[in-house]
Each structure stands twice: as structure tokens, then as C-alpha cells.
Design a protein that fits this description.
The protein is an alpha+beta fold. The chain contains 14 helices and 20 strands.
């Protein structure tokens, strides 16, 4: 094309670009070796212009990967200017401060050439099953404990893979086949995206992506400005307390809504932790921006134009702006909580838009056995190291119940237990909703899960736990009750700590009970028919119907309308602090 792009041209090319990045992302999912990519979708994929601006992303992926990767390509271009790259070059890093927040995430960037000229960059990220060091643990005290740290460097030069680097990876990780397999999957997915992009550019006679990229980014930025322009101007502050490790952690934020952008400042947030739950700024920006965009403009495409409308600041050396070389493996522990904090601010500015607090923090079961980890040394029992992605309940929404067993805001999928059972000696004896775990409200909070896990081997196994919401529950909004806290225990009845490495003795079972989301609105305003339905489906107990919701059920499970109306009228006449049971 030589003439300027028309409106129809832009729409056609935009839709084609989305199909390009979606095929890129699906290639990664289909070729990856690890369950975190294949089953949970813990990845990201996108296309960038030669200024390092993200134009489009695959639908598959997590906000932490996508939004932090969106800023990462600039770092690659700073280190390797476009004019120094050649066709067949592939770059990569797992630098937590220039990538996606911890060493377990590998970001691969591939320049794409049309007629000898670099016209685009494809980037992709996946969570690796292992990166060496102390492993999937928050016990590290510095980044150097946490595994192999790969700076921004060439993975391939002119189509020739860096075998020295791959050999270093192989001898530093516990699962070399899976890890190196995932590296090749990242290369393949970028190559697929590049091939499809070049086909598109040739079909439409595009010499470069400059005009299309500018149209995409500028329109997204204008759409965000329009959405922000409908909000009230001002500043609002909120905070929340979560469990932490050595001490409870305060996450505090001030949201300022201006004419066409928003600023979030995390002043007041706790300092860095001795444990690896610290969050680099790139990951803080990623989940803060995601939370706000999801609330006010979910229809706007996610790219550099969108992200530029949300500015994030945090004091140095706080837990959400952790400097090198603090340990950051469990950065999602803090990062996933940030939408809840920001929603506490936004809820004061705009009514009935944001949900109640949810579990937010993933309750993944990171399970393992082997020499030096459990009592399996010398027993002949199988060694394994696996992470199965799961979560508890999401917070109730203003007009809908919370989603159950949903990993908002991470976006990963739960891993089917059959997959984990197939590659380990583990058995998932139970996996069910945790009845009564959602907070009561006009809209009920989502339910957590209850899982019971054992081993087919006559041996112990271990779990690396880094769970939040075990002490401080997800809070409700506007009169909604908090969700249940989570807990770990043995099948034999012994309580376990929700933090750090725990051993499940031979013959015993691990019981994981995940938190539920907070409720929204006064429970006495919930439709009695919905309460009766929840009891019939086993989502809440019959006693909770009366105690929490003021609903009286007959022997046949139907609502006693007269008794319910009398009970609710009496409850609502009580002082507010005692109403609701």
C-alpha cells in the first residue's frame, strides 16, 4: 500500500494482526513441554514495532506476563539496537527487573525482517518448571539464591542456536528436558508469528508497520482517555493488610484520576521482606494497570497506548518496588493483591463498578519429593517436582455472585488433576467446592476449593507453600461479609503452616482448603430464592441461610416467606453492628 490507510484498511489489518498473535500464542501452548504453559496458559505473546511498543497481544496469557513483557522489549532494543540485529537472531532474558518479575519467567524476543529490513519484534514469555537454585521457594534471601540469572543476550545468532547457553541451562535445572523444550517452544512461537506477519504485509503491500502501529496505539490511547474522562476527578486512598511472612504486610495506594490519565501511588506500603515475596516495579505496574483497565475500559485493546494512560509510582525499597538484589521468586504473592487495593480506591470514586476482595493470591500446589527434600532418600521412591495451578473464590460483583475456584486476577487456568496424576505418583482424592467459604452478601462471594492429596508411593512428599488470606480474609464491600480464610492440614488432623516447606509423612494426606471471596451488599437483601438454591446445591449450609441471610427454610427446603420477612424485619431494626447474625 502506498496511499494512507483508510478506516476499512485499519480494521481489516487490525483483525488480521490479532489472528497473527493468537496463532503465535497457540503455537507456544501446543509445543510447550511444561504443564504451566500447556495446561495453565501461564504465558504471553505479542507483536511490537521497532520502537519497542506493543501493538497487539494474544488472548491467551496472564496480565503479569503480558503487561510486563509490554515494557520489556524496550530494554532489549536498548541493549541490541535494531541496526545490529540480523535475520535469524533471537534474544532472551529472565532478568526480573527487565523481564516479567522473577527468574522462572523466560522472555524471548525475535526481530522479523522484510526484504532485509527489521520491521517488527515478536516477544513471548512462559513460566519455566525450574530454573535451579533453591527452587520454587520463597526461602531465598537474595536473587542469587533463586537460580540461573540470564542477562539480556543472544539465544540464537543468524539462525544458529547458542548451544553453550543451552548446556549451561541443562546442568543448572532439575528438569532439563522440560526447560529446554519450553525454550524451543518460545522460539517456535515467535517464528510462527513472524511468518504470519510477513504473509500479511506482503498480501497488503505494507513496507512496514509504522502507519498501522501508530493508528492502533493512538486510537487505544484516545479510547482510554475517553473512558477516564467520564470518571470524577480527584484522589482517593485505600489500604489492606495481608498475612506476609515475618510480619503482616500493608499495601496502600492513592488513586488520582486526572483529565485523561490515572496515577496510582503506593506510598504507605510496607518495606521489602526478608523472604522472596518482593515485587519488582515492572510486575507492580502490570497488575495495577490490568486492574484499572478491567474495571473502566475492558473493551479497549491492550497495548502500549492503553498502558500509557495508567502511571504507577512506588517508594524505593517498598515491597512493590523491590530493588536488585532482593529475592523476588514469589512476587505474585504481592502483585496479585494490587487490583484489590486499587479497587478500594476506585470504589470510593465510582459506585457499583468493582468487586469485593477475592482470594487473588494463587493457591498453587507446588509438590515435590527427592533427595534432601523429603524422607525419600534411599527409599527407591520416585523424585518429582510439579506445580499445579489452582485458586480460591473471587469476590462478589455488584450485580453477580463471585466466581468460584477462579484465579482472578492472574488469568491462568486450573490444571486438571489428571495431568498431575499422570506425571507424578500423586493422587487427588478429593477436589470440590468448599461449602460456605464465600462471604455472605446481596451477592455471595465465590467459593474456594477443598483438595485432598496423597501419594501412591510408600514415601513422604513435600509442599512449598506461600499462601495469603490464611490470617486476613478477603473483605466484603458495602455490607458484604468477608470470605473464609484458607488453611493447610494433614488428613490425620495436624495443622500445617501456610508458609514455607512442609512435609506430608508417608501414608498421610495433604488437605488444602482455599479461601472464599468476600460478599457484596447487605446479606439481608439477597433474594431468598437464591439462598434456598445455594442450600439445595450444597454451596452454603442450612444454618447459614438463617444466621447470615435471615432466610427461614421449611422441611422441604423451600422458603417460608412469612417467617423470613419477620426475621429480616427484626434484623434490620437492630443496630447496624449486630444486624445479620
Amino acid at each position: 500500500m502506498t496511499a494512507p490507510l483508510s478506516e476499512i484498511d485499519v480494521q481489516i489489518l487490525w483483525n488480521r494482526l490479532l489472528s497473527v498473535v493468537e496463532e503465535q500464542g497457540q503455537t507456544l501452548v501446543r509445543t510447550a513441554f511444561s504443564t504451566s504453559a500447556r495446561e495453565a496458559g501461564d504465558i504471553s505473546a505479542g507483536v511490537f514495532d521497532m520502537r519497542g511498543r506493543m501493538l497487539a497481544q494474544a488472548v491467551t496469557g496472564t496480565p503479569g506476563h503480558i503487561n510486563s513483557m509490554a515494557r520489556a522489549v524496550v530494554h532489549f532494543l536498548d541493549a541490541f539496537p535494531a541496526e545490529t540485529l540480523v535475520d535469524g537472531d533471537v534474544l532472551m532474558t529472565n532478568d526480573p527487573w527487565k523481564g516479567t518479575g522473577h527468574l522462572f519467567d523466560l522472555t524471548v524476543v525475535t526481530p522479523i525482517f522484510l526484504d532485509g529490513r527489521a520491521v517488527a519484534m515478536f516477544a513471548s514469555t512462559t513460566h519455566l518448571v525450574d530454573i535451579g537454585g533453591i527452587g520454587a521457594s520463597v526461602e531465598g534471601r537474595q536473587i542469587y539464591h533463586e537460580g540461573l540469572y540470564i542477562p539480556l543476550m543472544h539465544l540464537a545468532r543468524a539462525g544458529r542456536m547458542n548451544e553453550d547457553l543451552l548446556n549451561i541451562v541443562r546442568v543448572n535445572v532439575r528438569e532439563p528436558v522440560q526447560v529446554v523444550g519450553d525454550i524451543y517452544a518460545l522460539v517456535a512461537c515467535n517464528e510462527t508469528g513472524g511468518r504470519q506477519l510477513l504473509a500479511m504485509m506482503r498480501e497488503f503491500a505494507l513496507p512496514d508497520l509504522d502507519e498501522l502501529g501508530e493508528a492502533v496505539i493512538s486510537r487505544s490511547r484516545r479510547a482510554m482517555a475517553e473512558a477516564i474522562g467520564k470518571l470524577p476527578r480527584g484522589s482517593w486512598s485505600a489500604s489492606m493488610t495481608i498475612d506476609g511472612f515475618e510480619a503482616p504486610v500493608t499495601l496502600a495506594a492513592t488513586l488520582t484520576i486526572r483529565e485523561d490519565d490515572m496515577v496510582v501511588d503506593f506510598t504507605g506500603t510496607s518495606g521489602v521482606s526478608r523472604y522472596a515475596i518482593n515485587c519488582p516495579m515492572c510486575y507492580t505496574e502490570a497488575y495495577t494497570a490490568f486492574g484499572l483497565k478491567a474495571a473502566i475500559a475492558p473493551w479497549v485493546p491492550n497495548n502500549t497506548g492503553t498502558l500509557d494512560a495508567i502511571l504507577v509510582t512506588a517508594p524505593e525499597n517498598c515491597i512493590v518496588n523491590a530493588p536488585h538484589p532482593v529475592a523476588v521468586y514469589g512476587r505474585s504473592t504481592m502483585g496479585h493483591m494490587l487490583p484489590d487495593v486499587v479497587y478500594g480506591c476506585l470504589d470510593q470514586a465510582v459506585a457499583e463498578v468493582v468487586p469485593a476482595e477475592g482470594t487473588s493470591n494463587l493457591w498453587n500446589v507446588s509438590l515435590m519429593a527427592g533427595h534432601g527434600l523429603t524422607d525419600t532418600a534411599g527409599s527407591g521412591a520416585r523424585a518429582f517436582n510439579v506445580t499445579s495451578f489452582h485458586s480460591g473464590g473471587a469476590g462478589a460483583r455488584p450485580h453477580l455472585d463471585g466466581l468460584s475456584a477462579t484465579p482472578f486476577p492472574s488469568g491462568v487456568r486450573n490444571v486438571p488433576v489428571e495431568i498431575t496424576e499422570a506425571i507424578t505418583p500423586l493422587v487427588f482424592w478429593r477436589k470440590e467446592f468448599r461449602a460456605g467459604s464465600g462471604g455472605a452478601g446481596r451477592q455471595r462471594g465465590g467459593l474456594g476449593q477443598r483438595m485432598v492429596i496423597g501419594s501412591r508411593d510408600p514415601a513422604a512428599f513435600g509442599i512449598q507453600a506461600r499462601y495469603e488470606r490464611a490470617v486476613y480474609p478477603p473483605r466484603g464491600r458495602h455490607g458484604g461479609k468477608p470470605g473464609a480464610t484458607g488453611r493447610l492440614s494433614l488428613g490425620s488432623g495436624t495443622a500445617l503452616r501456610p508458609k514455607g516447606f512442609q512435609v506430608i509423612p508417608e501414608g498421610d494426606r495433604l488437605v488444602v482448603e482455599m479461601p472464599g471471596g468476600g460478599g457484596y451488599g447487605d446479606p439481608l437483601d439477597r433474594d431468598p430464592a437464591l439462598v434456598a438454591r445455594d442450600v439445595a446445591f450444597g454451596l452454603i449450609g442450612a444454618e447459614a441461610a438463617e444466621a447470615d441471610y435471615g432466610v427461614v427454610l421449611g422441611a422441604d427446603g423451600t422458603v417460608d416467606a412469612a417467617a423470613t420477612a419477620a426475621l429480616r424485619a427484626g434484623r434490620k431494626s437492630l443496630p447496624k453492628e449486630t444486624a445479620g447474625g
